[in-house]
Amino acid sequence: MEPIIEVQNLVKRYRKATENAVDDVSFTVQPGELFALLGPNGAGKTTTISILTTTLSPTSGSVRVAGSDIQRDATAVRKTVGIIFQKPSLDANLTAEQNIRLHATLYGLYPFRPTYATMPAGYKRQLEELSAVLDIEREVFKPIKTFSGGMKRKIEIVRSLMHRPRVLFLDEPTIGLDPSSRRSMWEYLSKVRAETETTVFLTTHYLEEAEQAQRICIINRGRVVSYGTPEQIKGQLLENYLLLDADDRDRLLAELRERGLSPSGGPPFRVPVNGRSPHQILKSIETPLTVVRVHAPTLEDAYLAIVEGGRR
Question: Which of 32, 143, 284, 308 has the most CB atoms in a 10 Å sphere around its CB?
């Protein structure tokens, strides 16, 4: 399957800078994926997403989005992407529907009409369908200034999907939202992906959000430092292991060594999993155990190992 986004040897150096903000970055995104771009502040995430959405020109390298080159055919790229920025970009003096109607008009989807009632049936139907996906049918005609941060995000999602983008860029979309609103937004985004088959390109500081991604690219100081599925990234750096203890520690150690399980440290003793399931290892041990703990590294563990290792 042809990638929906292709980034090859991307470089961006700002005028008077001594180092590249983005330094030889390459990755691909497949259609329908949830793809996460991660990195600490100043790593180059915002610069990268700005180039991919045609709001910033690269110094060198090539980028294609939905088959179009971002420099030679920027207009085509803009027609195929939707963007939700870190800060809400809604007009607080308008209703949610008026914000959406303005967006649809600017994209040339429908001719402008001064009222919702006079808009074409296609617009009304599309607004109704997207509002239903996000469960905001009753709120869509209310003023933006009355909305919470979470509700504003939902309106931005509806607005960004009106022109049926093939790729939805989310730049720190849940920053500033409370945990309940963050959870709700991800539930809505999952529904959107399932129902519209939209590719979602995410930057976030919340590592648990990136755990949902099919693939992740971690950049630091402008360079790619890890790239793959969440499991691949965790597996490259960190190991799963068991912590075991028993009243008869000598017997336990002898048995672990006999079975080639390479215990270390302790007590409790650390036993690497090495591709086996914890259940298989525990089933093979006959010594009665008093402590059994499974250490399964998280994406956050791997991320910190990568980023903090790069700072040394």
Answer: 32
Hey, where are the domains in the chain?
5-233, 239-296
- Nearest by Cα to 43 from 225, 180, 167, 216: 225
Helix (H) or strand (E) holding 254: helix 249-258
Task: Write the CATH number of the domain with boundaries 5-233.
Answer: 3.40.50.300
Q: What share of the chain is helix, strand, coil (3-state, %, to 5)?
A: 40, 25, 40
| pTM of structure | 0.76
- DSSP letter assigned to residue 259: T
The dihedral region occupied by 213, where left means phi > 0, alpha psi between -120 and 50, and beta the remainder, is beta
Q: What is the DSSP string of 5-26?
A: EEEEEEEE--TT-SS-SEEEEE
How many residues belong to the chain? Answer: 312
What is the spatial distance between Cα 220 and Cα 43, in angstroms, rounded to a whole number? Answer: 5
Peptide bond connecting 278 to the previous residue in cis, omega within 30 degrees of 0 = no
**Considering the chain, what is the average pLDDT of its residues?**
88
The pLDDT tens digits for 225-260 are: 889 998 888 776 556 788 999 999 999 999 999 988
Please give the Cα distance from 286 to 251 (Å, whole number): 10
Query: Cβ contacts of residue 17 below 8 Å, gap of 6+?
Result: none
Contact 220, 43 (CB under 8 A): yes
DSSP 174-195: TTT--HHHHHHHHHHHHHHHHH
Sheet holding 241-245, edge to edge: 269-272, 241-245, 291-295
Q: What is the maximum span of the chain, computed from C-alpha positions, in angstroms? A: 83
The pLDDT of 9-28, averaged and rounded, is 95
DSSP three-state, residue 264: strand
Residue bearing tokens 């529907």: 97
pLDDT, one tens digit per residue, over 88-116 is 789 999 999 999 999 999 888 999 999 99
